[in-house]
Amino acid sequence: MIGVKDLIRIDPDHAATVDLTKPLLVVPLPCALPPGNRLVIDGWHRIHRALDLRMEKLPAILLDPADERRCRLRGGDI
Length: 78
Hints:
Layout: H1 12-15, E1 24-28, E2 38-42, H2 44-52, E3 60-62, H3 65-73
Parallel strand pairs: 1-3
Antiparallel strand pairs: 1-2
């Protein structure tokens, strides 16, 4: 069985250049129980860089289903 983490590919060179002030985009997973009921859909390179820098917090936006669909249709922009 493949987990979500197995689907994420990080380019360390790109991760080193990302803007950590840009918020992660997160969607709720309505069928999952906390704490696993959220999924980052944009921002994995920022997470990678933040972990390298030992940062504990990043800005994030929790999208509702309508926002998530609009974001997906626009290619990641909200």
